[in-house]
Amino acid sequence: MVKNLAAALAAACLLVPAAAQTPTPLKVGFLYVTPLTEAGWVRQHEAGRQALQAALDGQVDTRYVENVPEGPDAERVLRDLVRQGHRLIFTPSFGYMEPTLKVARDFPEVKFESITGYRTAPNVSVANARYYEGRYLAGIAAGRMTRTHVAGYVAGFPIPEVLQGLNAFTLGMRSVDPQAQVRVVWLNAWFDPPREREAAMTLMNQQADVLAFHTGSAAVMTAAQERHRLAVAYHSDMRFTAPDAQLLAVTHHWGDYYTRRAREVLAGTWTSGSLWGGVREGMVRVEHFGPKVPRAVQEEVLARQRDIGAGRLRPFAGPIADNQGRTVVPAGSALTDEQILSMNFLVAGVQGKPGQ
Questions:
Q1: What is the helix (H) or strand (E) element at residue 2, kind and residue range?
Q2: Axis crossing angle, helix 131-145 with helix 295-310, rounded to the nearest 10
Q3: How many CA atoms lie within 13 A of 13 on its CB side?
Q4: Fewer CB within 10 Å: C terminus or N terminus of the chain?
Q5: What string of H, E and C letters represents the secondary structure of 237-263?
Q6: 127-155, pLDDT tens digit by residue?
Q7: Strand 350-351 relative to strand 181-186, pairing
C-alpha cells in the first residue's frame, strides 16, 4: 500500500506542473532609429517600453534594437525579430513604414505598430501624437520670454509632421508677440549632434534668443546653455544638460498606448487601426519649466494646455496666412485633420521655404 501511495504521489507531482504551467510570455520587439541616449525621441519610446514591461511583467518579454537606419537595415532587423519569435513589433520612425509593410505581408500572424506611419494593413496598425499641440504651447512661452522677437528652429526633414510643429510654434509665439519671427535651419537628418549644435550656434548669431528643434539629440539644448539663451526641450525633459537654458519641455508619452496594444494581443482582440492622440489623450504635454520662467507665464501656458485638452483652443484655427501672404485658413474655420496631415506650407512669421 505504501508503495502504491508513493507511486500515486509521484504521478500527481508530474501532473501539477503541466496543469499550472505559466503561458509563454508574448515577445514584443522595438526598433529605434538612433542610439539610445539620455533624452530625446528614442528615450521616450524606451520609457514606453519600460512601462509596458512593468505593467505586464511575466506576460510579456520585451527587447529593443537601437540605431537601426531606415530602409534595408530596418527590414533585415524586422525579419530577425520575427524569426526570434516576436509577435508584436513597434517601429517608431516615419522611415520604418515601408519596411514594416513589406515584412508584415510575409508574416500575417505577427502584429506590427507603425508609429508615425500612415498606411495600415490587416496586421499593421498606425499611431501618432499631435506634437503640434505641445509646440503651440511652447511658442506661447517663447513669445513671452523673447527679447529680440526672434526664435531659431533646428529642423530635421520638411515632412508634414515637422511643418506642423514649426507652424504651430510660430502661431503660438505670434499669438502673444505679433512681431515674432522664426528662423529655421533644415538638416535633412534626424540625429547629427555636431550639425545640430552648429545650426543652433548659427541661429543664435542671427539674434535668436529662444531655440526650438525637431531632431534627435540634446545638442541644441547644450548650445543654448553655453550661450545663456533659452531653448525648448523636445521629446523629454533635458534639464540634465541645460538646467538654466530650458524654457520648458514638450514631452511625449507612449507607455499607456504600448501597454493597451500588448494587452489586446494577449487577449486576442487586437485589430488594425489608426490613432492620433494629443493633449486630451495624455500623449503630449508641456512640463518641466526652467528656473527663468515666471510663474505667470507658466500658469498662462498650462491654462492654454487645459483649453486644448477641452477642445476650446485649436492651434490651426483661422485666420492663418502663409509666409507668402496667402490666406490658408479663413477666419471662422480651422484645418481638418486631413489638411494638417498633408501640411506643405509655412505660416507667416517663418523665414524661408520648406526644406530651405
A1: helix 2-19
A2: 150
A3: 6
A4: N
A5: CCCCCCCCCEEEEEEECCHHHHHHHHH
A6: 999 999 999 999 999 999 999 999 999 99
A7: parallel
The CA angle 53-59-60, to the nearest 5 degrees, is 45
> Do 237 and 251 meet the contact criterion of CB atoms below 8 Å apart?
yes
Distance CA 271, CA 261 (A): 9
CA distances from 225 to 25, 155, 183, 189, 352 (A): 45, 19, 19, 23, 26
How many Cα atoms occupy the beta-carbon half-sphere of 317 within 13 Å? Answer: 9
d(CA 91, CA 261): 13
17 pLDDT more than 90: no
108, 95 Cβ separation under 8 angstroms: no
- Give the angle 335-341-343 at the CA atoms, nearest 5°: 70
Which 3 state secondary structure label does DSSP give 94? Answer: helix
Q: In whole angstroms, what is the distance from residue 287 CA to residue 250 CA?
A: 7
109 and 82 Cβ atoms separated by less than 8 Å: no
| Neighbouring-strand partners of residue 249 | 233, 287
Q: Give the Cα separation of 97 and 258 in Å (integer).
A: 18
**Nine cell digits for residue 35:** 542610439
The runs of H, that is alpha helices, within 177-292 are 193-205, 219-227, 255-267
Give pLDDT tens digits for 164-191.
999 999 999 999 999 999 999 999 998 8
Task: Assess contact for 169 and 349: CB atoms under 8 A.
Answer: no
